[in-house]
Specification:
The complex is a heterodimer of chains A (169) and B (795). Chain A is α+β, with helices and mostly antiparallel strands and 169 residues long. Chain A is built from five helices and five strands, in the order ββαβββαααα. Chain B is an alpha+beta fold. Chain B is built from 22 helices and 28 strands. Chain B has a seven-stranded mixed beta sheet, sandwiched between helices. Chain B has a five-stranded mixed beta sheet with strand order 7-15-14-13-8, sandwiched between helices. The radius of gyration of chain B is 28 Å and the shape is globular. Chain B starts with 20 loop residues before the first helix and ends with a helix. The chains are: A alpha+beta (169), B alpha+beta (795). At the A-B interface, helix 2, helix 3, helix 4 and helix 5 of A face helix 1 and helix 20 of B.
Chain lengths: 169, 795
Amino acid sequence: MTRISVTVDGVRYDDDVEPRTLLVHHLREQLGKVGTVVGCDTSNCGACTVLLDGKGVKSCSVLAVQADGRVVTTVEGLAPTGTDGELHPMQRAFHEKHALQCGFCTPGMMMAACDLLAENPDPSETEIREGLEGNLCRCTGYQNIVKAVESAAAELRGQRAGSTEEVPS
Amino acid sequence: MTAVSERPSGEVGAARLRKEDARLVTGQTQWTDNIALPGMLHMAILRSPMARARITRVDTTAASQQPGVVAALSGQDLAGEQGSLPCAWPVTPDMVHPDHPALAVDEVRFAGEAVAVVVARDRASAVDALEAIEIDYDPLPAVMDMDAALADGSDLVHGSAGTNKSFTWVLDSGEAGTGGAVDKALADAEVTVSRRYIQQRLIPAFMEPRSVVVDPTGGQFTMWSATQIPHILRLMLSLVTGTPEHKLRVVAPDVGGGFGGKLQVTPEEVIALLAARRVGKPLKYTETRSESLSAAHHGRDQIQQLDLSARRDGTITGFKVNLIANMGAYLGLVTPGVPILGAFMFNAIYKIPAYRFECTGVFTNTAWTDAYRGAGRPEATFAVERMMDELAAELGMDPMEVRRKNWISHEEFPFTTVAGLTYDSGNYEAATDKAMQLFGYDDLRREQDQRRENNDPVQLGIGISTYTEMCGLAPSRVLGSLSYGAGGWEHASIRMLPSGKVEVVTGSSPHGQGHDTAWSQIVSDQLGVPFDDVEVLHGDTRTAVKGMDTYGSRSLTVGGVAVVNACGKVVEKAKKVAAHMLECSVDDVEFGEGSFRVKGSPGTEKTIQEIALATFAAHDLPDGMEASLDSDATYDPENFSYPHGTHLCATEVDTETGEVKIRSYVCVDDVGKVVNPLIVDGQVHGGLAQGIAQALFEEAIYDADGNLQTGTFVDYTPPSAADLPSFVTERTETPATTNPLGVKGVGEAGTIASTPAVVNAVVDALRPMGINDVRMPCSPERVWRAIQDAKGGAA
């Protein structure tokens, strides 16, 4: 067992983990953060994508011990804290553009999209499609996901333009 | 955007954002794998590494002594308890239906079949202990090829059956008395086209792996399962395991996609129930993706021999279909029925006077096949739509002209087809004209000519698919006549709460289709209550007490109509209460927008909310009336529904590399009345992605020894966003005449129509090179080889 300290969605958690524990299992089973899900065992589907120090990672390909001392954002921490019921622009865009059906891929898809927009705030359709290549969806055919990311990008650009502070993705 | 220009006056037809999304976008979803019960154990499954072998020894002693292990069980340990998994569709009286044990007992019949399980205190301990199970196999030759399996002297998947043939099923228009004999039509034909097509094996690959939790506490068994069919599952589990039905509750919480892949009574569910019964504690099993790809059922996998006869002017005179359908190693819940559904669709939208369909179901040492996204209808539509293009090429006609020449015109509905179905309504001309115009068909044909003249290395292909499907499975008596074991009805109840809020209970169990939203829209219009005042309950046999579940695009066309009827009963009762309160005759009361009024007396009214409260209080009800404003409705449709549409695809095919790029994709679907255009568009998009994936990307491949070569997402390659284009999706709206909502179903339309549209476009690009077929998926390698073969043939 190894002691790790990880800040997840704004809360610091100190836990003992087996060295083999994957971050996604630590999140789901030890911390009860079940918004992040597991869709495959080969890091292909992207359903478990979270932000690690603001950067998108597939949490099935990161050991929990590698997250020691770092900051994790999951879908459950995506919306601004302290504003109950408020959605992150990405969550709102997925809802408004009907970018989900069964919703299983949605948390990972949105986290990957946030990562994409952090790198490229104004992506073209092709750039969005390529940026989400590591996340699979079986329901939507991706069309509305692309629209949602375009819409969230526009809103986030607007927020950035109207604010002196960097808006966290 | 929808093609329907008029704005809806009520909720039905409005592009309502989904109620479901609130929890799904915030990670508050209840997937089965999220469930954690106090003291819950975990189960892991050992699976056969071989396609066919005798099990000569199983020893679970060492495994059962591993740390954290509570039980280690083999098939032998559960013999006598585990029954045989059900097949609910014995298509012929003499169908061969071998035993299908949840845990293999003395022989394994496909790689991935479950052979033993471990129950342990955590998942890692259970998986670790699998390695300590000692099991000896005596390998046997695997039967992998469908033709070889049917040959005399073949090795047998089920030795005791004495054959690899499960059944032969025939539909013949001559026998049905609707027209001529196919062989005569073929013999007398001015032109015939014969082709052999392969429907490759596909894997449903729902994003949420299958998962099951069983709580056996107190002799009451509650099972949560990622299933499409909680009601059917409950009955079947009780029959298979001997657990009394009234002691068994099945819950389908949020389910992460199904596509037919979760329309099953799985070995995993049976084993989990038996193991939980054995250890007396709650337990959970969640499959890995590799287990899902190898051991959840597969789809398609047919060999189609097709013979079409026609006159020189393009009029079709006969169509003969010979299918071999791969059942896999066992029969699943509806395995034999899948190709039989297709039997009714090979004539598609065309007036074909003579038709014969014959299907042979065959066993092989592969995962069993069953319903998958369209179930039989994509296979049929592919066959007929490819043949329309081949006939056009043979005659030198435009492929759309051949279709126009043969299809049922909109004045001819209702129309009884050669397969015996009666299509209630449709307008193929309208959908096609609109699609052609949006697509720019004539301009693309001109560009194609230019590229051909210029010998452009990138050739343009245009693919057409004009389809229909039978949706909303369906009238119980018809399903009975086809020997299908379940009914075709659906159930709904309305619970009008004292405050005027409404609970709708539906037997239809969603997995992404947006029932909460669509049902709320329907109820809002029917009862005149606000959209947000409606709550939809489903997927739990304790609250949604009756149902036939969700598959075959039946939710709205059957379940939605049941909701309408349940609402009608509430209004009927409320009207009596209103008449009593307003002191008038029931015949004088009219209902609209949530209020009951005395005809011709403005100002006198009682809202439905007031009546709900009065009926709950029951202080002054008409004599003999029961308290509360509830209803219960079971709807059994009079017919299937028949959505249709025209799909057009333009592909650019690189003749040097074999790469296929979809340049544009236009579809105009007619799904009857639209309840929510957002949901319809979304379902069409997803269906298109799957249909295109069959055409270009996906195939389950076994090697000659029966090892699945596509057992991970690395090898079985569902398309990503980067692999697909944006689509133009529009609609025409020809309401169904057979249900009060006018709805026809949409879930499978995109999948059914798009595969032939894409393959027709690929072949169309290559036809000048002498190529008239490319086997699916039309990968760069397959296309490149077809080109090289054609070049070689010309040299």
